[in-house]
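Figure caption, in words: inputs first, then the predicted bound structure.
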Amino acid sequence: MAHIKNFMSSKPIDIDSLKKKAVIFRRDILEMLEIAGSGHPGGSLSAVEIFLTLYGYQLQFKSNNPNWEDRDRVIVSKGHVSPVVYTTLANFGYFPKEELKTFRKFQARLQGHVHTKVPGVEFNSGSLGHGLSFANGIALGAKMRGKDFKVYCVMGDGELQEGSVWEAAMTSTHYKLDNVCAIVDYNKVQENGPTNEIKNLEPLGHKWSSFGWHVLEVDGHCINSLKTAFDDFDKTKDKPTVIIAHTIKGKGVSFMEGKNTWHGKAPNKEQLAEALKELK
Ligand SMILES: Cc1ncc(C[n+]2csc(CCOP(=O)(O)OP(=O)(O)O)c2C)c(N)n1
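Bound structure (thiamine diphosphate present):
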């Protein structure tokens, strides 16, 4: 059986091991939210496999040297999903998992929206719609300096309603930023309801391709499909790639799945216990 990528080497992948990690991630996310008494479960649970495939397969990084110059950059534009980001970073060795218990506590590093005081976080976010512009800037800088690293930008579907995203999308193609990979966590639900009722995004793939992007659509909970999409991005030249990852908001917890009421609310003790029964 293949092994999980040693972070500096080429790319074998152990899908079974990553699937087991997905369960651990979901448990960690819910536990940290329950302790904090607040936070965003829905869009964190939908993005678990996206982050796992990034850190478990695709990225070049050194968790013991987070500012390593040649690291790939991950820009988390939907900054409210700090639970999945911090869980990922802790599980991949950026800081001790024990620290997850301090999530959202006064004076703790792990605040409710991701920020750069946390090792491994590249960008302060929370105000939606800015990450892709930032990713473009880093990617353009990399090209100007002859650097090979890649820049990944994770966005939400509700976030795509921000006009600034489309301004950035034009910039990426104008500068032929083939070192930019946008990943849309397309969970179809935003804070106040279904995305297509609030402001419909469809036909989403056509929108991106009409802006000149290489467009891939995958099941965002299938690690193998995400892997194949990242491989495709690696081979694509002269244009940026967007991976539209079809996901389920609240994935893995039956009473949270597809519900906007679980966008920004922590489970209580009983709800946590019920959720953990499902995540084995
Ligand atoms: C500029 C801006 N407007 C509004 C908000 C409030 N807000 C926080 S999360 C959210 C919904 C985002 O939906 P989506 O991007 O689909 O996130 P996900 O479902 O992945 O959590 C909104 C409107 C914000 N953070 N920033």
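Confidence is low (pLDDT under 50) at residues 1-9.
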